[in-house]
Amino acid sequence: MANSEKFVEIRHARKSYGSLEVLKDISLSVDRGEIVAIIGPSGSGKSTLLRAINDLDSLSGGEVWLDGVQINKTLGHREYEKHINAMRQQVGMVFQHFNLFPHMSVRDNVTMAPKLLKGISDKEAEALAIEQLNHVGMLERIDYYPSQLSGGQKQRVAIARALAMKPKVMLFDEATSALDPELVEEVNQVMKMLAEEHMTMVIVTHEMDFAASVCDRVIFMDGGVVVEEGAPEQVFRNPKEERTRAFLRKHLSVHGKG
């Protein structure tokens, strides 16, 4: 279980695109080793908030902290580039679409970032690739190319690629929503395994059963704000807010179960 240490902190996050306010003064934290699910309707700001954690979507206002260091510092251009690149190496991110390099083998997809960004040797990178591909059950596909893999296999390789950087926190942005239904579970099993290993994770998901069974805490967002948060059993079975209840009636298969 997570301890009380705030590991990821978001303080008064705001994000606007012109007149459209996507995030409206959001503050929340994630403890070390905690698994947090973010749920909510499309357009509620979930993915924008997740991407703000490693400054892929820069905030219009507010701060993001990781392990006591502010990520989105306002520095000169060169200073900022050096700073954010160092911080991003501590944050693994898995997207809805796999973003594997199609012209590279699985081996090269996993070893490239550690070699380029951390400067480790080919031998060390190879050992990392073997370790992490074995971790996600994809070692036997190490010399395959993405075109030879199913969607679920591609996503497991994407997870191995993120893990090869030895991140402090893993972010999952609808990691299974592009998969055929029969392939979802193989990716969910990998995420469950990481949860059992107490990897700090923030998961944007539309899979309520998965969130209920794996996560320590659930955050429900709507309209750019956090409407409700709490333990899965509280949010899913006894939500306090009508907006949460309305969302659950449409989307949650476990709602109302004893």
Quick take:
This protein is an alpha/beta fold and 258 residues long. It has helices spanning 46-52, 77-88, 106-118, 122-135, 151-163, 181-196, 208-214, 232-237, 242-251; strands at residues 6-17, 20-31, 35-39, 61-66, 69-70, 91-94, 169-173, 200-204, 217-222, 225-230.
Which strand order spans the largest sheet, edge to edge or round the barrel?
6-7-8-3-9-10
Based on secondary structure, the structural category is alpha/beta
Helical region count? 9
Tell the overall outline: globular
List keywords for this structure.
258 residues, alpha/beta, four-stranded antiparallel sheet, 9 helices, disordered C terminus
Secondary structure elements and their pairing?
Elements lengths: L5 E12 L2 E12 L3 E5 L6 H7 L8 E6 L2 E2 L6 H12 L2 E4 L11 H13 L3 H14 L15 H13 L5 E5 L7 H16 L3 E5 L3 H7 L2 E6 L2 E6 L1 H6 L4 H10 L7
Parallel strand pairs: 3-8, 3-9, 6-7, 7-8
Antiparallel strand pairs: 1-2, 1-4, 4-5, 9-10
Helix pairs in contact: 3-4, 3-5, 4-5, 5-6
Question: What report would you give on this structure?
Answer:
- The protein is 38% helix and 24% strand.
- The strands form two sheets. The protein has a six-stranded mixed β-sheet, sandwiched between helices.
- Strand 1 and strand 2 form a beta hairpin.
- It is an alpha/beta fold and 258 residues long.
- The two termini are 23 Å apart.
- It contains nine helices and ten strands.
- Helix 3 packs across helix 4 and helix 3 runs parallel beside helix 5.
- The C terminus is likely disordered.
- The longest helix has 16 residues.
